[in-house]
Structure formats: C-alpha cells, structure tokens
Specification:
alpha/beta, Enolase-like, domain 1, TIM Barrel, 2 domains, nine-stranded mixed sheet, four-stranded antiparallel sheet, 14 helices
C-alpha cells in the first residue's frame, strides 16, 4: 500500500477570538494510497506552520519537507516512517511544530491501517480496556467567580459530573485566583469532580500556595501551574503539593516527555494525540505506566482528535477521565458526520475501522482557507 498523495488543508471558523482555544482553526492531513484508501489526521498547532513543514522542498538530508520524504513509501511501515521523518528533519525539528506535523501524518497512517484491516485503531494498539470513559467538560474560566459559577452550573445541568476550568484570568492576582476557583466549585456543586488548569502562570512557590488554597475546594488536580520547561520546579512542587499535579499538553513526542517521566515530575501525564501521534503516544503510555503515574488525554480541537484520543486512552488500564472540549465552535461539533461527545457524563469509544469518523466534505469546503498536495 504505497503513499501516492499527502493533502494538507487549513480550516478556520469565520470569527476567531483572542482566547486560548484551539478549536477555532485546524490543519487536516489526508494521506492517500494506490489502493484508493485515505487516512485522515490532525495537528494542534499553528495550521500554516504545519503546512509549511509538510510542503517544504528538499534542502539537505536532515532538513526536508515531510511530503517529499513519504510519497512512494509503504503506508503500513508506520514506525519506520516515524523514524525517517524524525531523522530527516533534525535541523528543523526534534520538538515543536515539526513533531506536530509528523503526528498528523502518523494519525492518518494509523487510520489507513485500520481501514485496510477493517479494525478500530484501539485493536491495533493492543486492545481497548474500556468501552466508555467518564468525561469532563473542558472549558475556559468566566471573567470572575460569579460567571464561572454559571458556566459550571450549565455543564453540570448538561449531564457532566466533572468539569475543568482553565486559563484566563488565572494568574491576575491571588484574589482573582481564589475567586474563580470558589465560583467553579459553587457552580459544579459539592459532589462534582473539579479540575483546575492554571495555564502556566506561576513560579513554584506561588503554585504551592495556590495548591493549598485550592485544596479547600477539593480539586482533583492542578494543571500546568508552571512553565512547561520548569522540570525541577515541577518535581519540587509535586513532592509538596496537597493536590495532584497534571501537565503535558505542550509536549510534542517522546523526547519532549522524557525529562518529565524520568524525573517523576507529575501525578497525571496529559498526552495530546494531535501533538504526539499514535506511535509516540503508545511509547509514552508504556513509560508512564512503568513509573506508576496516571494518564489522561489532552484535546481541544475537532472530533478527529477526539476520536484518536478515545482509541488511545481506551487502551490505558487506569483511564479514569477523558477531556471533552465543550467550546461552542462549529469546528468542534460539525467537522465529522459522527458526533463524538459525551452523553450523560460518559463518552463512548468508537468501534468502526480506523479512527471511526468521516469528514463532512461540505463543512470542509465551507471553512477551507488553503490547501496543498
């Protein structure tokens, strides 16, 4: 099954807001083969940057565009192709956007493999351990505690037992931080599972102070309190925090996760399939399970990545929560014919071949900004 074409499509909704939400645009990668099959993948990164990594021509042996490397290759040799992409982009990659572009292609290759063998990806990864997973509604904070409480109540009324609030205006001041977390608990109710995403805003000592303050609201974890590269800070904080510490969404590939895992820096490692692909996410899962820590997905894009995340997380024995983005974006809800969203607080794992989702081509054409092949 030879790769004949790699198509890169950038989609964007009409009204993009200045907020930390990656469900406003997307880059889709479509890998086609000589037997007529197509696999789809997605990267959570700057879409035009990903497109540039794929489209770039040959420069020299370790600085090459991904399309040039892959057309004519056997689409089933996924691990070898991952290593080829990593090796041949060393001068331009190894972390960040190049890995996200590789991840979108890797996701599409696994989708192709599943379609060829008529198997869901979780079967190819070794078999699912869960048919459904408790989902948490993932949403941004309101501008203050009262608005955050109303948001929490909305999603609790929608059937979610768990809600995560994140990013702005966290970090503005101690008073603001405490106010919005109190509002979150008030809206969610005493028996709800509350998760807090700080958005990388503090130093380690401030984070420890907030961890103690938020423990009064019985939060299940404190996510990304520090800058992503502050490995020593994370190790120091995890050893002292009264609440579990979670992070990992910024990490791209196994090498990026290595210092966090080797240092046992976290209680919960959050892996984004659209930034790591299935190949490296499988490796990361095995490493994290070896050290006895917990795993969760990160996902704030479209149903393509939601489906990929479900396939991967369903193979994790201790899968206890699933991040379910509830942003009111057509890209989150209308890109595929299948609705991949929690119902009554739980989300089902797809069982159709490959990713188990199909693109709504009318939606793609309506929101298409640019395309290359």
């Amino acid at each position: 099954m030879k790769i004949t074409e790699i198509i890169c499509q950038v989609l964007r909704i009409p009204h993009v807001e200045a907020k930390t939400a990656s469900s406003q645009d997307s880059v889709l990668v479509r890998v086609r083969t000589d037997n007529g099959l197509e696999g789809i993948g997605e990267a959570d990164s700057s879409p035009e940057m990903v497109k540039a990594v794929i489209d770039a021509p040959f420069s020299h042996n370790v600085a090459t565009g991904l399309r040039t490397l892959l057309v004519g290759e056997n689409a089933l040799e996924i691990d070898r192709l991952w290593q080829k992409m990593y090796r041949r982009t060393m001068y331009a990659g190894r972390r960040g956007v190049t890995i996200t572009a590789m991840s979108a292609i890797d996701m599409a290759l696994w989708d192709l493999k599943g379609k060829l063998f008529k198997q869901p990806i979780h079967s190819l990864l070794g078999g699912k351990r869960h048919s459904r997973i408790l989902a948490y509604a993932s949403i941004l904070f309101g501008k203050n505690g009262d608005e955050t409480a109303r948001i929490g109540q909305r999603w609790r009324d929608a059937g979610y037992r768990a809600v995560k609030f994140g990013w702005e205006p966290m970090g503005t001041s101690e008073a603001v931080d405490r106010d919005i977390v109190r509002g979150a608990r008030k809206g969610l109710g005493d028996d709800g599972t509350l998760l807090i995403d700080a958005g990388c805003v503090w130093d380690a000592r401030t984070a420890l102070d907030r961890a103690h303050a938020f423990a009064e609201q019985r939060i299940t974890w404190l996510e990304e309190p520090l800058r992503p590269d502050d490995y020593e800070g994370y190790r120091w904080l995890r050893d002292r925090s009264p609440v579990p510490i979670a992070a990992g969404e910024e990490e791209c590939g196994r090498q990026s996760f290595r210092p966090l895992i080797d240092g046992r820096c976290l209680d919960v490692y959050q892996v984004d399939l659209s930034r790591n692909g299935f190949t490296d996410s499988l490796y990361i899962r095995q490493r994290v399970e070896e050290i006895g820590a917990r795993l969760c997905n990160h996902c704030y894009t479209s149903p393509v990545t939601v489906a990929a995340s479900l396939h991967w997380l369903s193979t994790v024995e201790d899968a206890f929560l699933f991040e379910d983005c509830v942003e009111d974006s057509p890209l989150r809800h209308e890109l595929t014919h299948e609705k991949v969203q929690a119902k009554d607080g739980y989300i089902d794992v797809p069982d159709r071949p490959g990713l188990g989702v199909t693109l709504d081509e009318d939606f793609v054409l309506k929101h298409l900004i640019c395309e290359s092949r």
